[in-house]
Amino acid sequence: QLQLVESGGGLVQLGGSLRLSCAASGLSLDYYAIGWFRQAPGKEREGVSCIASTGDSTYYPDSVKGRFTISRDNAKNTVYLQMNSLKSEDTAVYSCAVPPLGYYCPEDSISPVDFASWGQGTQVTVSA
Predict the structure, then answer these.
(1) How far apart are CA 13 and CA 70, in angstroms?
(2) What pLDDT, on the 0 to 100 scale, is given for residue 7?
């Protein structure tokens, strides 16, 4: 059974950086796209990144483009989200998720309903 465990969250100052990790066990992620989502209190879950199984295609919304970078290490069965120039609006619980086989990261947006397996999330808090 697939398990996803996020880590790397924490409290960071405005403009700082964090690298989140999503470690998978129970299933090889080699052939799966992976998504990162975030949810702030009182707000809907938002997709912030997606990476294809081959790593050659990625998606970012405008809100994080140029600041966040997704990557994957299939040998470690782990996906990363490097977050730079953090803003107060980046404060949220960040979760990684795996869609069914065959899913390909779209160019316009990613929806949580397309993702079947989720980690428990890691809190990111950006302070002024």
Answers:
(1) 21
(2) 98
